[in-house]
Amino acid sequence: MDPFSSINLARSTIQLIDWSSKLLSGAYEIYHSPDGLTEDDAELSERTAILRKLAFGLANRSSGHVADGKCEPLPSQPVAAPDVGGNSLEQEEKIAEDPVTDKKKTAREDELNHVMIQLLNHENDDKPMGSGNKLEVDQAYRKLQKLTSEMKTSAKAFAGEDVPRSEQEQNLQRVAKGCDDIAKRLETTLRQLRVDPKNAKFRKISSFRQAFVKLCSQRKIDGMERTLDKYRTDLILQLSVIMSDQQSSVVRELRTLRDASSRLGSAYEEHLDNISKSFRLIQTQATEDAEHRRQNPAAYRTYNDDDETEGKKLSLFSLHKSYGASDKGGSSQSQNNIAADDEIPQAFQYLAETLRSLVTTATDVAVAQRVLSGLHYKTMTMRIESVVEAYTDTYKWIFKPRWAKNAKGIKVHFAEWLAEKDGIFWVSGKPGSGKSTLMKFLCDHHRTAEALANWARPLNPAMSTHFFWSSGTTMQKSQEGLLRSLLYDVFKKSPKIMKMVCPQRWEASRREEGDLEPWTLSELRRTLTALATCHGLGYKFCFFIDGLDEYEGDHSEIIAMLRSLAASPHIKLCVSSRPWNVFEDEYGKVIDRKLYLQDLTSRDIRHYVQRKLEEHPNWQVLPSEEPLYKTLLEEVTTKAQGVFLWVYLVIRSLYEGLTNGDSLPALERRTRDLPADLESFFKHMLDSVEPFYHTQMVRTFQVAMGSTSPLPLMIYSFLDEDFENQNFALQIPVKQMPMVEVVRRQDQLRRRLNGRCKGLLEVCRNSNEGPYMGHRVDFLHRTVRDFLRTKEMSDFLAEKAGDHGGPNTLVFKSFVPLIKSIPWEEVDVSEGGLLSRMLGDAMHYAYKAELESGEAQVELLDDLHRTLKFYATTTGKPIPWYQNCYTPFYDDTDYAPCQTFLEFAIQNGLCLYVRDQLRREYQPFEAQQPLLHCAIAHLPGYTIREPDLTPMIRVLLEERDSCHVELLKQDAWVSHIMAFVRILDQEKSPKITQMIEHRQDMIQLLLAVGADANAQWKDFVHVWHLLLVAITHSPLPSCPAIIQITKSFLNAGASLSSPFWSASDAFTEILLEHCSNSETMSDTAYLDFLVQIYCLLISKGMELKPSERLLIHQRLPGRLSESISAAIDQQKLEKKVKSQAAAEGSQSWTWTSWLGALW
């Protein structure tokens, strides 16, 4: 991966020009070895002799004698360099045997270690082995070859990139080609010198220049020098233009890196600023160089001219026989003071190193941003952005020292923990008490950063955040989302951290082009574990995690993971949740590591109420009303019981009274009449909605409740259009909506939502998306959704609902015009871009609409297909069904995962629609791959949840006989099982569990209709055997579907052995391997799972050897070994019964046959 291939080509060309010029200029004398050996060979021979001598002496000391007076030869295999920091185990044992320390022996060992390290680390590099400015011919030849190779590699990479190049960038190739021609001529000459170094013809030649003149001619050498000087001048000027030309690939790439850095919020601005400064420096120096050449042409004569020039001043890029940049009026250095072999002249060396640094820095930044992009997801910061800011002068008590008590006499130990302590601090509180607001306050406050700096000293502090959101997307309420958020925030700090904790991901991002494999949950966990255990990072980390109770998975599982993180000496966590038992048991036992928010906010609530009332323009209190005012403040504070959400709603009610001109006594009565608990308050608010709006209110609430995550505000705009005209979605043309119209509609919907829903739905902004999709509708608080799901409110909503269709049907109908109206400013037809995400969401709701209504959405889906073809035609790009939809992935066939709308519909489970399409006499589009393969062989990137495709498989088998034939060919079936094997390698999560449950039904169906349980993968191994091994290593032992899948294969005749594999041998080895692992042995659920599979195999005929039974009995816990013994006994009994039944049947048949014959 080379973001600045032009710069890299220029750098490698500069190095070649420099080296060629030095050879031609006579800068180096030829080193002549008296014995014909190069100094490399001589030194290596000397080191080897010393090593043998020392080894001989050491052996003599250790053994007390030397056989036949000979030293054993050195081993032919490479010898690992000894650890000079301490003795080896064998050395320590010998020292222990002989208490008398032999100082001479120790000295010999030290000397041996030193020589061995020198010998083993010796490289035939380009360092001069002679003295001063002398250089061996072989070294000069090798270095010239090396630099030429580097330049050719850079030129190949430059030419191989499919990017537009400016004219100056294209000229770099011309310069590189010219330099290559000169290098070839120099190589030819050096090769002649290498052939016979003792040749008398060359013995009197003292410098490389003399050799070149002798073998070529003075005229040719002068010509090559002039050509190199011209190339050098051209290259510098071209570099200057490239770095300022806004159309050059270099400047475009730098701009892309800056945009990505800004978009991802990464902390690489300083790196990019340094690159820009280097650009400007090179441009400035190039300009000065050109001007100096214009004013002092004599200063740039060829190198074989020994005349000195007064007033000569060498710029940053000058290359002369005089390498010191002298002041004006000074003289140049003599040739005898020229730097040694590997030292590039300071000026040109600085340019080469500057360009090398530019490329390295740009590459690191580009790689780091690829890694960050893989971790980032669109809704990563949406939750924390939607949490309300802490009101002015509230929550300041959180930073007070532990000895400061609040009005209730409660001490808060948070400040002490933040600045000094490790482990976990728990923020708990009632629903609506302001936990998320406090967590956001802590994350943003400068005193948090100051306290963490004190805690981390002398290292640097780094903070990561994640806010779980039960109303959000799957990523916002899953463990995967948590891990990606934490790692993303950490990795933004420094590329060094990435390299150290996930080196494989870093290297893959550096080497591979295109999209990388997505992060798996297993990889995320491993990376976070590496972060917790890795030393030398230079950072200590504090994680703020809000809303553990909103995590959708097993809470005990997330608690265990956080506990393991907190065990690290350089990681601590601040977490928040409701006071559920599972969290109380884990975090509530240590008094100085927790707080209950509702007990600490009475002063904040009073302050908030007072300030908010005083902010209203109609607020005034007469002196005689002061006591009543204090009574009002006290009543609100007391009635709130620490629930800030209730106070917020009360203030809204009081504002309505103030707007209507209510007096202070009226406001006090209004407060007194308001319900004290949230649910009653919500009901009170909904009862105030005008009956005229009830139907639309119910539709709005049902859509919000039924959505998997907050929907775009524009969906609700088109939902209103559908309320007035149910054919609106089909009638609206494909026409990009002007942004002015988008803003008008959004402002209009905000007012409508306030009128219909009384503020219980609000609009939040996702800064990672544009205005069209970035404004989303969500509940005021999680407690509102909980309230609407109560039986009372469910009955109320059902009673008021109209006959316009279910919520999923309404949402899908609104997605069609939403896709038709995308503004040109936000049209993104890249795979995984905006259109891909919208399509994924739309098809999810189309799938749910089919299940909800029992009807195919044929007209809407056909209209959507026409819309997508319009976008493909107008943009000239294929329809972006989802990420990597056109790239064969994890499949032995050449079929792309998805190319047509029919394939897309199949993969999204639209059974009724697909059946309609297959039954049409004229099919407007067809799949580009076998239908069954399309349904079962791929793992599309679903934006929400994977549909159950088992009904789709039934439809395909019923409607197409070719699907049965396809199944017998086994390609799709084998691809399906291999995809399932990869799923089993994932860590447990609700998403993965659901995918496995879907595969259970699909596998049972496919086996029932003819899939071969013993199908082979790559014609040599049964795919069932691979599946069984994957099952035994799966981190998902508690998933019952896996057991059922194993039973299905066995019932379908899956073999327990093959010429290359035996279930008994393989599974026993796996079981015993886990029995020898202390960590696995402590996981009783996993062992139970393995034994359950083991017994299942035994019941289907797997036989154990006596030795295997003995090992299992010895190593497994008694309860589990007894289960296996019982399974074996049961198998024997069944075999005996079957054998007896077969014998009786045989006798009965013989007797009957005899009677028949007799008759």
UniProtKB/TrEMBL annotation:
Keywords: Repeat. InterPro entries: DUF7791, NPHP3-like_N, P-loop_NTPase. Residues 688-823 form the DUF7791 domain. Residues 413-578 form the Nephrocystin 3-like N-terminal domain. Residues 65-86, 286-307 are annotated as: Disordered. It comes from the Eukaryota. This is Uncharacterized protein. It comes from Trichoderma harzianum (Hypocrea lixii).
